[in-house]
Amino acid sequence: MNQDRQYMDQVFSEYVRIGKALSSEKRIELLHRLTHGEKTVEQLAKISNMTIANTSRHLQVLKEANLVENHKDGKYIYYRISTNRIESLLNEIHLISEEQSPKLRYIEDQFDQSDPFIKVLSAEKAMDLEEKQDVQLVDLRVSKEFELEHIENALNIPYHKLENSIDLLQKNQPIILYCRGRFCPYANQASAYLNKLGFDAYSVNITHFEWHRHN
């Protein structure tokens, strides 16, 4: 019995070690940023609005938990997530939070209503629309993420290239936009931008994981 207890204590202790590494909104953000691709400490500090020293401290905690790894290239140190399962983990954290937190749902609703040109569809309505008529399904993630996995028949137009890729889209077909779910504001922003140009563009704030799950 004592041996069983010791085993369980050791297992749960390792779970707690990972949990402690995730117990900071800034470390969650850093992991989210790194799911987009590897970045230097300086790049992460800039986009997360932290000092380089503070960013380095958070990255060290994540590294000690084996959630990130790094390598040096010249004078820069690059970080990346240690496994693609981390993206799935972040997605599950969000889904649980969305189910259990009325405040989070309120924050999301407010963001959806922040621009009158944003049009949002639920996953079910987006899939129903795709089944009933021709639509343009657009993945706004960077190409490296798209190449790893994406929704079938989706067109990859990274958000930062959208303005220069308008010719790839049709105004006579609805456009369904997705990115990295609620972790990413790009689908809503792209919906507003395209609708102002006369397109019929809808944001669906789910990931490709969730799309496949609903299917």
Automatic annotation (TrEMBL):
<keyword id="KW-0238">DNA-binding</keyword>
<dbReference type="InterPro" id="IPR051081">
    <property type="entry name" value="HTH_MetalResp_TranReg"/>
</dbReference>
<keyword id="KW-0804">Transcription</keyword>
<feature type="domain" description="HTH arsR-type">
    <location>
        <begin position="7"/>
        <end position="101"/>
    </location>
</feature>
<feature type="domain" description="Rhodanese">
    <location>
        <begin position="131"/>
        <end position="207"/>
    </location>
</feature>
<protein>
    <recommendedName>
        <fullName>ArsR family transcriptional regulator</fullName>
    </recommendedName>
</protein>
<dbReference type="GO" id="GO:0003677">
    <property type="term" value="F:DNA binding"/>
</dbReference>
<dbReference type="GO" id="GO:0003700">
    <property type="term" value="F:DNA-binding transcription factor activity"/>
</dbReference>
<dbReference type="Pfam" id="PF01022">
    <property type="entry name" value="HTH_5"/>
</dbReference>
<dbReference type="Pfam" id="PF00581">
    <property type="entry name" value="Rhodanese"/>
</dbReference>
<keyword id="KW-0805">Transcription regulation</keyword>
<dbReference type="InterPro" id="IPR036390">
    <property type="entry name" value="WH_DNA-bd_sf"/>
</dbReference>
<dbReference type="InterPro" id="IPR001763">
    <property type="entry name" value="Rhodanese-like_dom"/>
</dbReference>
<dbReference type="InterPro" id="IPR011991">
    <property type="entry name" value="ArsR-like_HTH"/>
</dbReference>
<dbReference type="InterPro" id="IPR036873">
    <property type="entry name" value="Rhodanese-like_dom_sf"/>
</dbReference>
<dbReference type="InterPro" id="IPR036388">
    <property type="entry name" value="WH-like_DNA-bd_sf"/>
</dbReference>
<dbReference type="InterPro" id="IPR001845">
    <property type="entry name" value="HTH_ArsR_DNA-bd_dom"/>
</dbReference>
